[in-house]
Amino acid sequence: MRFASFLPIPTYLAGQRAWSGNTVSMSSALLPKPQMRRLLARRMKFHLFGAFLVSLGCAALYKFGVAEPRKRAYAEFYKNYDPMKDFEAMRAAGVFESAPPK
Amino acid sequence: MANHSQLGFQDASSPIMEELVEFHDHALMVALAICSLVLYLLTLTLMEKLSSNTVDAQEVELIWTILPAIVLVLLALPSLQILYMMDEIDEPDLTLKAIGHQWYWTYEYTDFKDLSFDSYMTPTTDLPLGHFRLLEVDHRIVIPMESPIRVIITADDVLHSWAVPALGVKTDAIPGRLNQTSFITTRPGVFYGQCSEICGANHSYMPIVVESTPLKHFEAWSSLLSS
């Protein structure tokens, strides 16, 4: 109905039934219909992925910041370790009661 | 021994303790991942409006049943591996007996010579300069380094526990029962421990000190003591 274009009807009502039961039609819709369903599901999915990424990130941070350096430190210590030299140094310092300094 | 305000383990001085340190890092990493996940989701939940629209959540319920099961398996496998590794006691070079009393330890070396002595804590008033308070003893245990040692532990009166953290050893001393544990020290040194089962007024004052020395020095020490 052409007269409808002069009525102060919000543009998003274009094409939908008005309260009187008559269809109000406009020449074109200016705004697309917004997403109105599954908003919580989308937010939950997004944040669940985010949470898993954060937790994997924390685990990776600990692994490469603490665990791996500690393993490397032990390997480095024992790579060229001389127990007898270490013992003699400790003995000279008076650490042992069973092996007093010479 | 532990330094002041030390939070982590003492430096590992036996292969089992090295495995335990590595496993602890693994378990702590898993715990950190779970805690950060929970904290993130909790923060999210607390920041949004309440909604009672969710009535069906079959997919997420499946995920949060299977995922924890996988995490538990990831924890259990290395744990059981180390548990069985700790029980391997093959061909020890030396057997040492540790008997817990109120409030001192008795050690017996009966493999080659009949050697036995008591080990009392050195009182603080008698402590030489540079020695550690509440950790030093009058007679230390001496063992050969890099050799498998078996320790048989029991008690004379009440429950005690023979523990040396640097070696990854803690075994209960139970009257009327012989418990067995073993370790190998990877390096020479002096390792401290304390009684780890409440046993009365002086439970905190019966420490354990293990000296790990080359075999030659161990033999010289044991000959000296038994003569």
Would you summarize the structure shown here?
The complex is a heterodimer of chains A (102) and B (227). Chain A is an all-alpha fold and 102 residues long. Chain A has helices at 39-79, 83-92.
Describe this structure in words.
Chain A is mainly alpha-helical and 102 residues long. Helix content of chain A is 50%, strand content 0%. Chain A is built from 2 helices and no strands. The longest helix of chain A has 41 residues, at 39-79. The radius of gyration of chain A is 38 Å and the shape is rod-shaped. The model of chain A is unreliable at 1-6 and 13-23 (pLDDT under 50). With 227 residues, chain B is of the alpha+beta class. Chain B has 2 domains: 15-87, Helix Hairpins; 94-225, Sandwich (Immunoglobulin-like). In chain B, 33% of the residues lie in helices and 26% in strands. Chain B contains 3 helices and 10 strands; from the N terminus they run H-H-E-E-E-E-E-E-E-E-E-E-H. In chain B, the strands form 3 sheets. In chain B, strands 3-2-1-5-8 form a 5-stranded mixed beta sheet. In chain B, helix 1 runs antiparallel to helix 2. Chain B is elongated, with a radius of gyration of 23 Å. Chain B starts with 14 loop residues before the first helix and ends with a helix. Chain A binds chain B through residues 40, 44, 47-48, 50-52, 54-59, 62-63, 66-67, 70-71, 74, 78, 81, 83-84, 86-87, 90, 95-99, and chain B through 12, 18, 21-22, 25-26, 28-30, 32-34, 36-37, 40-41, 44, 51, 53-54, 60, 140, 142, 145-146, 186-190, 211, 213-214, 217-218, 220-221. Chain A: Keywords: Membrane, Mitochondrion, Mitochondrion inner membrane, Transmembrane, Transmembrane helix. Chain A: Its main location: mitochondrion. Chain A: This is Cytochrome c oxidase subunit 6C. Chain A: InterPro entries: Cytochrome_c_oxidase_VIc, Cytochrome_c_oxidase_VIc/VIIs, Cytochrome_c_oxidase_VIc_sf. Chain A: Pathway: Energy metabolism; oxidative phosphorylation.
